[in-house]
Amino acid sequence: MIFNMGNITKTYCIITYGCQMNLHESEKLAGMLQNLGYVKTDNEEQADIIVFNTCCIRENAEKKAEGNIGALKKLKRTNKNLIIAVGGCMTQQQGYADKLVKKFPFIDIVFGTHNLENFAELLTEKTESKKHIVAVSEKEGKIIEGTPKMRSSFPNGWVNISYGCNNFCTYCIVPFVRGRERSRLPEEIVKECKDLIDSGYKEITLLGQNVNSYGHDLGNVSFADLIRRVSEIDGDFRLRFMTNHPKDLTEDMVKAIAESPKTAKSIHLPVQAGSSRILQLMNRHYTRGDYLDKIALLRKYIPDIAITTDIMVGFPTETDEDFKDTISLVKEVRFAGAFTFIYSPRSGTPAAKMDGQIDEAVSKTRIMELIDLQNGINREQSKAYLGKEIEILCEGFDEKKGKYLGRDTYGRMAYFNGKNLIGRFVNVKITRTGGISLLGETVSVKE
Ligand code: SF4
Prior knowledge:
Elements: E1 11-16, H1 20-35, E2 39-40, E3 49-54, H2 59-70, H3 73-78, E4 83-88, H4 89-92, H5 96-103, E5 109-111, H6 119-129, E6 133-135, E7 156-160, E8 162-163, H7 174-178, E9 182-183, H8 186-198, E10 203-207, H9 223-231, E11 238-242, H10 251-259, E12 266-268, H11 276-281, H12 288-301, E13 306-313, H13 320-333, E14 337-342, H14 360-383, E15 389-398, E16 403-407, E17 413-416, E18 425-433, E19 438-445
Parallel strand pairs: 1-2, 1-3, 3-4, 4-5, 5-6, 7-10, 10-11, 12-13, 13-14, 17-19
Antiparallel strand pairs: 8-9, 15-16, 15-18, 16-17, 18-19
Helix pairs in contact: 9-10, 13-14
The structure holds iron/sulfur cluster.
Residues 165, 167-169, 172, 174-175, 209-210, 245 line the site of iron/sulfur cluster.
């Protein structure tokens, strides 16, 4: 069905919160809308449909989304034909859809994470019936292949390899809103990667809540096999993946990364905390020692691998001693980057009911110390780049800086001059270093 009636073109605007998984799912929503004849606009006031793809990992993300939805009440009053749809992790939480509809009765469609692939049908139903639609299935369905995608991240193509998570870390809402882990068939993944590479994409990022457990439900394929199969595709491209659970990282996976020249030499391995006591309370299934063993394994096969991480401070009962363990682990590993967070209780998770919730002021002091430490490490690592020539995949142009930008195999961001560079491999000589990013001169461009 096409909604392009005569000369009137219908427009859509998608507002995305949260992680890369959500950004990629917004590419699917955009693909479905384009298939229905809608075209993209960034101006909410001109849109015929506004879709919120929400996140519930932290309370802040939820508050922000609700604030932005509430702000549309006025627009809805002046444009009666405007359709407002809200989906994603926030709406999948138990009882949340009803709460949302009560709070914002002007919402037209509410859809859960398990209903995203059916968004086109929900929208058609809405436009035909004019009824309010709430579609939040409790259980995950089968994986649906072939959903159209309107990609927004050239030269990087995101490719889902699995959905959901089986781990139930005690602070995390994901298993409750994304369901159990389901792996896509390797043939489907390899085909999607090949199509992307054939159409000029230069970087593939395989996505899953825990890519390391990929294939457990299929039985005859592992993540190491998948790395090997995707790396064998003809073409000049880089392979990345995220996110990796340390407990499932195997020697075979590390060998697969080490042996494949196309696989980027960087890995995101969230540690969350440096104290074994806290890790146990988090239900992470590894100790501090286990994590350090995985780091040693990575460095045995890939000595220069860049390791980034996620660290949470202020988990219930975290003492000064526990926090010191986190600080000493950061000093020992010397991460190439760290996403640091203050623990945020999520209703419905075991950690939210734990005694010993930490005072916000204490968490803030701890996170500042951690950020200072990590920034210092990054500054030192950046200095080592000075005068070196590195290969960067150019990803975009920063209007404010007036420079191109991209990352090397280790994931380090650099800014540089040039012309028509997006989607090309560029050799850049680093002339200045800041915090985590680098500044350089273009030396040559790969044909
Ligand atoms: S591994 Fe843990 S933190 Fe990651 S998505 Fe699964 S439950 Fe959440």
